[in-house]
Each structure stands twice: as C-alpha cells, then as structure tokens.
Amino acid sequence: MTQPTDILIIRHGQTAWNTQKRLQGHSDIPLNENGRLQAVTLAEILRDEPLDAIFSSDLQRAYQTAYEIAKIHNLPVHQDRSFRERCYGICEGMKDGEIREAYPESYKAWYAADPDHFFPDGERKTESPRQFHHRAVNAIREAATRYPGKKIAIVTHFGVIETAYRTAQNIPLGTHCRMPVLNTSINRFRWTGGTLELLQWGEASHLEEGRKPPVDYYRHY
Fold first, then answer.
1. What keywords sit in the KW lines (predicted)?
2. Which candidate in 44, 68, 85, 92 is catalytic?
3. Domain ranges within the chain, ordered by starting residue
C-alpha cells in the first residue's frame, strides 16, 4: 500500500496588491515589507517542522516566501508554474468594482461561480475555474506522489489552496466555497492513494508574532 504524504499548503506573504484588493492572477507582484516580515516569521515557526521537500509557484511572491523556509531547512525550492494562481487575463490588476463596471457579464458569472466562464484575455490567456481546478489538483498530486511517506511544503496562492480545500471537502465546482485564507497561513493535508484529506486549517498564530520583527529580521533586508 502506498504510504501517505503529509502536505503543508501555505499561502504566500502579503503584497501591495493584496492590500489594495487588486486581482493578481499570473501578474508577478513581489512581497511588500509586511509580506517579507510574514515570510521570515513563518520560516521561524516552521524551523522544527520536519520537511523533506519544498515546492512553490514560480511567481516571486510565492518563491520569496518559500525561500525563507528553505533557507532554514537547507533545502532547495522546486519552482513549478503549475502552482500559479488562476489567470484572470485583462482583469488582473483591477479591483472588484472596476471589474463590475468594465466587464459586468464576467463579473456576474464570477460571482455565480460559473465553472466554465473565461474572463477576457489580456497579456495572457485566461483559464476557466474548471481548467484551473484540474491544473491545481494535478500539481498537488504530482508533488505528493514524488514523496510517499514524507512531509512536503507547497507555497502557493489563494486559488490553489481553495482548490485543495474544495477537493478534500468534496465541494463541487459551480458552488461557492468561502473560507479565510490569510497570507502565510498554514493548511495541513494528507495525500493517500489518490485521496486528499484535510487535517488542519488556517494556522496563523505566527501572524500575531509577525507584528514584532524577529531579532535578526533586518539582517535579511
């Protein structure tokens, strides 16, 4: 029988677009000052966590977060574009109200959770929720099956974490799935024989700690 893989799926630290509530998607936005502090604090919290591998999206906000964890564990970061956020095309960089005004039909479909809706293409080709869901699940599966009986960390984006939650809780596409996914929150899953199980959701006590920089924080930046 295949041994289970324990997976920590972690959202990247805060960015300027997070604070401005702009849709990020594939736009490569770096961590802001608070996000860098969150990443360092997260890494300290995970210092004694036994990790066998660390994966991240190739977008810099995820990689910068994963790098802090990897540095403490003396592990490489395996960057994989399959762990990127969903691509929102021309709507990336826009706020909720701006999307509603400029693309009202897309806005309605978005909030109706239409699984086959595509935003208008922009610099990059968009994905439907269904396409994105399959991409994210396949990425998690591939990472997990490479490390049976081990524990891995995946630093990624809101949408990928929502997909993991939806999969583990058997929430079908086309229905709303609302739960908090804070920046650098830790979500624990287990992959066993093709099934994803949720073990613990939304560990975020370190965000309170993050209000006070670690002693060596300013050595990093």
1. Glycolysis, Isomerase
2. 85
3. 5-220
